[in-house]
Design goal:
Layout: H1 2-16, H2 20-34, E1 44-46, H3 60-68, E2 72-79, E3 84-89, E4 96-98, E5 104-106, E6 119-122, E7 126-127, E8 133-134, H4 140-146, E9 153-157, E10 177-179, E11 184-186
Parallel strand pairs: 1-2, 1-6, 6-9, 9-10
Antiparallel strand pairs: 2-3, 4-5, 7-8, 10-11
InterPro entries: FTHF_cligase (IPR002698), FTHF_cligase-like_sf (IPR024185), NagB/RpiA_transferase-like (IPR037171)
Enzyme class: ligase
Cofactor: Mg(2+)
Length: about 190
């Protein structure tokens, strides 16, 4: 547990030190590296919209790739009272608003079942060589990923390289891939 908290502190600080130029450059490199993954034959993709204040990977580049390949794209709407996320189909007319938690989310839209999602791009603070990840600690993504199909593919996106080992808990759901600006990890 202490391990995860220390990693959260470390990676939040590392992220805050990044310039806007670095974030854009590395986000584009991550998108280009993601193109090499064996995931592009699917139909339903979940993507997260970045929390700007937390300097998350800018997924706009991946979103353009998905739209260019005519994929169905789904984004989340978090419910902090239940700790769960609804999956909403992203359409041309989907209105996005920033929640009181700073998360860009669809205001309304067509809900899509987690079981229909084939590829999920996952935000994270840190990850290790076995595919374990550290998020913000609320468990939203672990609950969401555990509700997906058994053959769904989970792809982490990170500006930084893998940690040696992260202590995992039984509720943690490991990634299948993690894409960084420099390389792609497969677990």
């Amino acid at each position: 547990m202490e391990n995860k908290e220390m990693l959260r502190i470390k990676y939040k600080a590392l992220r805050q030190s990044l310039s806007e130029d670095s974030i854009e450059k590395w986000s584009l490199e991550i998108a280009n590296n993601a193109l090499k993954l064996p995931i592009w034959d699917k139909t339903y993709y979940h993507i997260f919209l970045p929390i700007i204040d937390k300097k998350e990977v800018n997924t706009e580049y991946l979103l353009h790739i998905l739209q260019g390949k005519d994929k169905s794209v789904v984004v989340s709407k978090s419910d902090f009272s239940t700790g769960h996320m609804k999956q909403i189909l992203l359409q041309e007319n989907t209105k996005i608003a920033v929640s009181k938690y700073g998360i860009p989310e669809p205001v309304t839209g067509i809900e899509v079942s987690s079981e229909s999602l084939e590829v999920i791009f996952v935000p994270l603070l840190a990850f290790d060589h076995s595919g374990q990840r550290v998020g913000y600690g609320k468990g939203f993504y672990d609950r969401f990923l555990s509700s997906c199909r058994e053959d769904s593919i989970f792809v982490g996106l990170s500006f930084f390289e893998a940690e040696e080992r992260i202590f995992s808990e039984v509720t943690d759901v490991p990634l299948h891939f993690c894409v960084t600006p420099k390389k792609t990890y497969q677990f």
